[in-house]
Amino acid sequence: MSALRSQLGKGLKELRVHFCQTSPASSGLREFIGQNYAAIKKANPELPILIREASGVEARVFARFDKGVERKAIFQNASSQEVEKMLEQLVKSA
User: Fold this and answer.
1) I need a labelling partner for 24 at 20 to 30 A (CA). Which of 47, 56, 61, 75 fits?
2) Cα 33 to Cα 20: distance, rounded to the nearest angstrom
3) Mean pLDDT score of the chain, rounded to an integer?
C-alpha cells in the first residue's frame, strides 16, 4: 500500500495541488487525484488538501511543512504511477 494512503507524517501541514482540467500534460495528476483522493483524505482527515483547477496551469504540487517550509514538485506529462512515486518523495522531503 502506498505511503500516501496511510497516515502522513505530523510535519506535513498542507498539500496544494494545481492542474489544468483539459491539458494532456496534467492528465497523470488528474487521474491520480481522481483515483486516490478519497483514500488519502480518509487516512489523513485533518490534513488540508487543496485542489485548484485552472486553464493552462502547470501540473504541480506544493507541500507545506513545519515552520513554513515549502517544497514543490512539477508533474507535467507524468503518468499516474510516476505521480504517486514523486508525491511520496515530496512528502518525505521535510
Assistant:
1) 47
2) 13
3) 90
